[in-house]
Amino acid sequence: MRIPVITRRAGCLLGLTLLTALPVHASEKDELASAQRLLIQAQAALERARVAAVQADRPERERFWFDYSRATSDLKTIHAGIDRYLEPSRAQPRDAGFVAGNYRRERP
């Protein structure tokens, strides 16, 4: 049996699409892992800056100051969000739709 040319071309196109889709997903994971490493470095830099600010002899009542605890908390939140995306704890929930719940019927 001879396969039509259109089907072979469509099959090749589908195969190429699938082959190119896999590296894109892997690349996204790689980039997010890189972002996590940068977040860890940013947290370390914030900690060093916080220590330097504490050691510096500055007046207590400056008009503006940097909120290190809030910045650190935000970085931890972003890091945790990327973790949850990269390694979900379970399958994502699906919409089950409407369930009637009443399964008893009477005969007419």
The shape is elongated
Strand elements, count: 0
In terms of quaternary structure, what is this?
single chain
The major beta sheet can be summarized as:
none
Q: What class would the helix/strand composition place it in?
A: mainly alpha
Mean pLDDT: 75
Low-confidence stretches: none
Q: What's the SSE pattern?
A: HH
- Gyration radius, to the nearest Å? 28 Å
The percentage helix is 55-70%
Strand content: under 5%
User: How many helices?
Assistant: 2
Q: Tell me the distance between the termini.
A: 56 Å
Describe how the helices and strands are arranged.
Blueprint: H1 5-55, H2 68-86
Description:
The protein has 108 residues and is mostly helical. The chain has a domain at 26-56 and 67-86. It is built from 2 helices and no strands. The chain has helices at 5-55, 68-86. The radius of gyration is 28 Å and the shape is elongated. It starts with a helix and ends in a 22-residue tail after the last helix. The mean pLDDT is 75.
Please provide a brief summary of the model:
The chain is 65% helix and 0% strand. The chain is an all-alpha fold and 108 residues long.
Features:
108 residues, mainly alpha, 65% helix, 0% strand
